[in-house]
């Protein structure tokens, strides 16, 4: 077995291999999303270029496995894109690929995440052997445009506005409170805002009570809900529904968008009820594993 860095010359082969295997539930890695457009968009946003961050294993001339890594130095976390393997010696090859990937993880990265479909039993065994504790189970929900049932935004005491830099301090405080140590910091969210990414803020008497960060990817014909958060003091008053409906109205204003995707903790019954009332259905249940490295 030969393991090499991807390099630009192998990029299309990497894409084809990922798309083929990731479409299977028993191989699915959540970080890649669904389909070729998602895979390409994900790799295009990687801080570590795929030519450097992905490694390919060949059995003779046949590509047998891939494993990649990307990092976010601001939160000290690495995302492990794999293992994706099409070989009878799955576990041994996964260990070899991981050993190579681990060497390029920069200093200061103290957490490593795996994310796979619950039916991907090979990754489950790999995680147990390599010391990745189970962190959470997450439901992946999808809304088809034709199944959109949201009723619009009823009367409410909140003002829904686009992000204003003057509100950054409040936004950062609420984001850190609701989603501590998540994959995007508040600063990273606001730096991403453009014509395809919106951050809606809910205000009551100039006080931030909730927000919704979402995006569209026209090439993939998809919209994504990254974060919806409501301050504890404002829960139970329909604000989550208002924020969800506002984001959906914007995303579905793009005529090419056919589906909206989101992930939510699989045991978050109130959120699941809200989303299903809007027409979302559960496509997958995912397992997240996280290993923490401690400097000595």
Keywords for this entry:
Aminopeptidase; 2 domains; alpha+beta; 296 residues; 9 helices; twelve-stranded mixed beta sheet; single chain
Show the helix and strand layout:
Blueprint: E1 2-5, H1 11-22, H2 35-44, H3 50-53, E2 54-59, E3 62-72, E4 77-85, H4 90-102, E5 111-117, H5 121-130, E6 134-144, E7 159-162, H6 168-178, H7 186-192, E8 197-204, E9 207-217, E10 222-230, H8 239-251, E11 259-265, H9 269-277, E12 281-292
Parallel strand pairs: 4-5, 10-11
Antiparallel strand pairs: 1-2, 2-3, 3-4, 5-12, 6-11, 6-12, 7-8, 8-9, 9-10
Span between termini = 34 Å
Contiguous runs where pLDDT drops below 50 for at least 5 residues: none
Percentage of residues in strands:
25-35%
**Biggest sheet: strands, sense, closure?**
12 strands, mixed
Please state the second-level CATH architecture of the largest domain: 3-Layer(aba) Sandwich
Q: What proportion of the residues is helical, as a percent range?
A: 25-40%
Stated plainly, the CATH topology of the largest domain is called: Aminopeptidase
What is the number of helical segments per DSSP (H or I, 4+ residues)?
Answer: 9
